[in-house]
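re: that complex we talked abt at group meeting.

here r the seqs, copy pasted straight from the sheet so there may be weird spacing, ignore it
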Amino acid sequence: MLELRGVSKSFGDKPVLKEVDLSLPEGSVLGLVGKNGAGKSTLLKCALGLQFPERGDIRILGEPASKLSAAGKERLGYVPQKIDLYPWMKIRQIAAYTGAFYPRWNRSLVQHLLESWELNPQERVGLLSVGQTQKLAIILALGHEPDLLVLDEPAASLDPIARRQFLETLLDMVGERTVLLSTHITGDLERVADRVAVLKDGKIVYSNELDLLKDSVKRMHVQASAPLPNGSFHVPGMLHAKVTGHEAVVSVQDFTNDLPDRIAQQWSASVTVQNLNLEDIFLELHHE
Amino acid sequence: MSDYLRIASAYCNKVTVAVWCFLLICLLAICTSEEFARNSGGVLGGVLSRKSYMAMFAYFNACLLGVLLRGHIAHPWATLVPHYRRKHLLVAASIAGILLALPMFLMGFLGTSDVAPSSVAVIFLTCLAAGMWTLHQPLSGFLAIPFLAFVAMPASSFPALANFLEGANPVVSVVLAWISLFALGVLAWRLLTLSEGKLEYAMARLWGDLFHGRTQSSGEQSKLFHEYVAALPADQRATWKDFDTWKSSFNNLKELDGLSGCSERTLWQRMQLWRLGTTLAPTSISLGRLMLTTPLFVLPFVYLPAWMGAALPARDTVVIFSVQVMMNPFHIWLFWFMRRSRLGYESLRPRTRQEFVQELGLTLLWDLFQCWVGGVVFVAIAGAIWAPELLHWQNLLLFSFCTAAGQLAVFAMGIWPIRQGQGAGVLCTLCAFLGVALWMVSTMNGSMGLVVPVSIASLLAGVSAVVIAIACGRWCRADLD
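got the structure back, here u go
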């Protein structure tokens, strides 16, 4: 569905993406996470052919992103981070206008979503709140039932109820469509995504199944009989460690089942392993 | 000191420097031309005179300086600098003195000047005050009217004006200077006490954001208005409750309601579809509205001099109409500039990038073409009423050819920049329009003969065609948001 190979992009002297490799298999939901300014939006825009990388190759829906055909775009839905719709139109009019471009426009789906997301078709688009505008943009992106849906921070401005509704709608679509979404709300990602990619300083530092990420990044509590060395305490795949006397809290990536035993043996210690949620993993991966 | 330099560099950006250079070149050209310096009669003589270009140089730059000054003061970033309001005011005053007043005085040493130094000072102060105030509040826009009257008045037909320009009327000069200084003082005081609750603050943010391209939504103005109404006391709010800023009898919303799904469309139909995403009103309606209101603004300039005893050559009336009408497409450009922030989103509609660029470019060109045709017809009607002797096939052909080439040049210049703020794009295009308008004034004045305007028009058309082709290629490879 989407394949990025060695993609680099910079704005002026500032490199934003550095040799990014990423692939998105059909039918999967990939969550792209990263700090502000990590390059998530730029990566999505490059993937859609909106922006052109200096180096690398991008293929989307089997075509080069820079020369995406009209038929390819029919299979694509996109919700940008900054949404600027047509302020003078009413909601029903913007739906009709958008539908006029797409042969597969599903009016009843749009109608149903407008009702369930409590958007009044008679309301003027320019007077909608940020959250309402975001809801509308999501509905317009779903209207033609795209095969690939690209969402840039789709739930950032939604209230908790709308966010839950959005996630439910997205879950209904999983299995039929492929979704690529960037978000800061890692809790949402855990509900819907089966794959995750972590973008750090313009590079993909992890890209695989979400469960594998959870299996590979762990936090361990080490309780030794003798004081642990503060500067030289090290375990394989260590991301970050905090050593206080006989105790250490260490987070690792590439966790293996035998690692706690090896640490216990090396430091004459007892080791307990703690599973992390995606937010904790995100923080550990970005720990400076 | 570094704060002052940083603030000054924020004011002297590429766009403001380009506008300043354009106006300075116009001023320089008119000051070195002895023919224009003679200040011949009629409105044309009024416009093509040294005092008018001085006024335009000061007024337009002051409008821009005012937008920047207010935009900076009202932006949260500015508050990071201690005593930021005072510093911004000092920098703006220095820019006005060095970059506006100084060149105006230096022009006095070129050619044969008919404007005394004391009058230069008064023109500078009055235009600075009027320009700085013009966009401060919605109602202060009326300050453009006395400015335009001053520009259009020929000194040869108004002895009082000639006296003033020669510096022979010190009382008027002193009064005007004091009024201007007072107006500038009041403006400074209002900026020093500007707070978020005031409409002036909202206006400052709006214009500042428009200039810097920070406004993403073209609905910001209406949203701003609705927020302003929401903050009013209950009794005043009730008056505005049902006011819909987009409500209009003549709009294309019925066409939107009539859209029934996607079907195979011809290029023409696709252009009509794209057009619906530009603005509320169809081009023909906004053009018609403009033509109906044009006489309201133009006729006072036509009849006022005659009423005051000044002779107005019939040719001048037609030229005034022609300039005004040929500026028509400018209002279409404004809507297209607002659309720029949506282009990335819209480019993902089921068209290839090349088809998208071509179809949207043709849609814009069609809008401009309608305005041009409307303008030519309108000028022909004005000619038939006021100067039938001008309705000669050679004049008509010259007018049509030159204005078409001018519009094509503006189109090329308008689509060339890819990443600019709305305000910056608008200013660049406005300069192009002013250039075309001034050229048209000279052409219609007959001072350039026939060969020169035709040669210029041919060259313009040829260069424009090349620029358009390159611009299309640039847009096909451009990064869109």
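couple things i noticed - Chain B has a mean pLDDT of 79. The two ends of chain B are 37 Å apart (CA to CA).
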